[in-house]
Amino acid sequence: MAFAEKVALVAGGTGGLGRAASLAFLSAGAHAIVTYRSDREFGDLKIGAGANASRLVGRQTDVTDEAAVQQLFAEITAQHGRLDILVNTVGGYAGGDKLWELDTRIFDQMLALNLRSGYVLARAAAKVMLRQGKGAIVNVASRSALVHEGGLAAYAASKAAAVALMDSLAADLKGSGVRVNSILPSIIDTEANRKAMPGAGFAKWPKPEDIARVILFLCSDDARVIHGAAIPVYGAD
Q1: Cα distance between residue 184 and residue 174, in whole Å
Q2: Element containing residue 8 per DSSP (H, E)
Q3: Which of 88, 166, 179, 220 satisfies CB 3.0 to 4.6 Å to 1 for a cystine?
Q4: 149 in a domain, yes or no?
Q5: Nearest of 229, 147, 78, 50 to residue 59 by alpha carbon
Q6: pLDDT tens for residues 31-48?
Q7: What is the C-alpha separation between 142 and 149, in angstroms, rounded?
Q8: Out of 36, 119, 155, 234, which one is annotated catalytic?
Q9: What is the pLDDT of residue 201?
Q10: Is 155 a catalytic residue?
């Protein structure tokens, strides 16, 4: 999968999955713009990019803020003249409380991180990509969008809504040359998840690098017939 000179925006591009996706796009020849919240994490990403760091740009951006995202897209199009790819890896997790015990602030936070981020980013990207007549959008949802376990009402609802949002956007964009897909990871093998669940079976969790390859495929010309899909990435076990 070659992405030479393609312009990719990876929202949340310094997180566990976002970092893997950002590095994969850079390795494939793309220009990668990443949004981040921690200067330290972006510094680590830049070091990890090695010789490809010259094609990496970071923007400290709250992607739930529509005005901030509009400014970001204006900067991207001013510099590059286009945007070929949007990957949204921004998200949050909260679980363990029954619905009637849930703090409403947690519910609102899940909607902001898991649903509003995709809404704000995708609508901005769609406007740019429609003018180009091509582009690819991949939104990271979750297995919990389909499997609704107890104690996960806010998280599952926000991820299910995110899938519905992208499905509807895909219908809106049918025939435009702009493709939209979702991926549905199970628990990803990241440092943060290992710390949160020290007794879990890490070996069965899908690795960020493996999921990143799925993301790159969905953004590539090889996936030109895949549109409006929600792809499970649960691992083989």
Answers
A1: 22
A2: strand 7-11
A3: 220
A4: yes
A5: 78
A6: 999 999 999 999 999 999
A7: 12
A8: 155
A9: 74
A10: yes
- State the residue range of the domain holding 17: 7-233
The DSSP code for 114 is: I
How many domains does the chain fold into? 1
What distance in Å separates the CA atoms of residue 109 and residue 124, rounded to the nearest whole number? Answer: 21
- Would residue 2 count as lying in a domain? no
Q: What are the residues whose beta carbons fall under 8 Å from the beta carbon of 120, sequence distance 6 or more?
A: 63, 64, 65, 66, 69
pLDDT mean over 22-31: 97
Asked if 59 contacts 37 with a C-beta cutoff of 8 angstroms, the reply is no
Assigned token pair, 226: 């895949």
What is the pLDDT of the chain when averaged over all its residues?
A: 94
- Tens digit of each residue's pLDDT (9 = 90 or more) over 190-232: 777 777 777 777 778 889 999 999 999 999 999 999 999 999 9
Q: Please report whether residue 43 resides in a domain.
A: yes
46/68 Cα distance (integer angstroms): 23
DSSP summary character for residue 62: -
Instruction: Tell me how far apart the alpha carbons of residues 204 and 201 are, in angstroms, rounded to a whole number.
Output: 6
Do 205 and 188 touch, CB atoms closer than 8 A? yes
Q: Tell me which residue of 174, 149, 172, 171 sits closest to 160, measured CA to CA.
A: 149
The verdict on residue 65 lying in a domain is yes
CATH code of residue 152: 3.40.50.720
Run of H or E including 43 = helix 39-49
Q: Which tokens is 231 given?
A: 């792809």
